[in-house]
Design a protein that fits this description.
Layout (H helix, E strand, L loop, with lengths): L42 E2 L8 E2 L4 H35 L5 H16 L3 H8 L1 H21 L3 H29 L2 H32 L3 H5 L1 H15 L11 H4 L2 H20 L9 H24 L13 H31 L3 H6 L2 H21 L3 H18 L9 H28 L5 H39 L5 H10 L2 H4 L3 H33 L15
Antiparallel strand pairs: 1-2
Length: 557
Amino acid sequence: MAPPDESNGIVASTPATERTPLLRDGRQGGGAAEAQNGEAGSTQEVEGSDVPIAKEPNAKELILILGSIWLGVFLAALDTTIIATLSAPISSSFNSLSLLSWLATSYLISNAAFQPLSGRLTDIFSRRAGLLASNILFAIGNLICGLATSEWAIVLGRVVAGMGGGGLTAISTFVTSDLVPLRRRGVWQGIGNICYGMGSGLGGVFGGWINDTLGWRWAFYIQIPFLVISCILVTFKVKIPVKETDKSRIKRVDFLGATTLVITLVLLLLGLNAGGNQVPWTHPLVLTTLPLSVVSLGVFVYIEDKVASEPVIPVRLLLDRTVWSACLTNWFSTMAVFGLLLYLPLYFQIQGYSTTAAGARLIPQAVGTALGSLGSGILMRATGKYLVFNHICMFFLVGSSALICTLTISTPAWVPFIYFFFLGVGYGGMLTVTLVALISAVEHKHQAVITSASYAFRSTGSTMGITLASTVFQNMLRSQLWSRFGDRDEARELIPKIRDSLDEIRKLPADWQQGVLDAYMDSLRAAFITLLVLSVLGAVVSVAMREHKLHNNLARK
């Protein structure tokens, strides 16, 4: 490994090639900046750069710094899945079944809407300030949920917690990029993904245990002391230098861009989550929010390109081949994977497994995701390349998606385990490889905002994948059931029940059961094929990525 260069970044006059960052910002200042407000530490400097770079910590220091952040990431991941177990008891305690869907949706929308803001805001106010604010918001949100005496109070708590949880997840990625050279970046991202995976994997079990022993409110209370510990650790351990300009920090904030981005994502995700779930697709809520989100997106792009001096997301960065390719690969692949994760448990329940057993059969996918992420990071560190591993990951993702389309009701129980494991390997590896590709394609000062952009693609992709799979499945199931049983006297009574509950299948007359199971399998296969097409699109757009150099030091020299 080459020794760290005592410099602060790539000299502005260095020509761009296919192996160096391609995009330069015309507003770049002339001298090296000073760090401020105690965030300085030891920095590297280079002529022509306006962004200070932190001194690279040794392995022990890095473990302490990232460990203090990963505690918050673990809790944020725990909170995303804990609600799956707690939704029913919480809704029952407030006597409101309509609350069931909003508990998850409110967290998801606020998480996805505010996450992309964290890149530019922490560039201005520091990573440490962003992590502290995110921990505090997350703690306040959980406190509101624990103390809630009305259904709308707990929804408010989930919104506030979502804002904090999104920041914790995104900023941890920025800090890792700030402190780890690109050559080793994937390894540490893989470890971080394992922490996130552990949190999301334990959330449902933890929520059920707490509900059965202490009551659902304690599932929220018990997280608060750990968030306080995370705040203390972050205060003393995270010291990333920030850029200083003649403007005050508040004046540097792109309020117009931030506002229009949040409005765009809230309108889009609200429409997608509500359509077909809480309300029909023809409902005024859907017909209003989705078109308005397109209008708001246009306003956002104009502001970022023509008005903002420090845009939340510099949209011109998205024109670079590697950047748009990596973002769209994330988008399509996340659509495919999240759609599969929604409907694979349904496949197992049709086979006769309980809800718990069906959920447990997704564990190989979680294990594969962790191993794919960490493994791709190790390989990138060893070779200094990422493009070949992207092709391998997408091969696994597309191949396993295709094999899932071949599942039948009589498929042996062990076969899906193999398919799901390689699905996870492909997806986890893709996430890590595309992140490294994105960061390597832009200058150091843009790495946080471009990472924020990738999170926006990923969060909207997860919602769109679930929505698209649900639309295909529901329409196909309706068509299949009516074509098979529409001429029978009991059809108008039984078909709506069959579509709403799998339990009804076991209560059907003997001459109905096999036909209903076949209709379900045909509908699932239609959804799986749709998701396969999305994974293929992800593989196709990923081919446009270029190979950039993965440097051994933070200064990229």
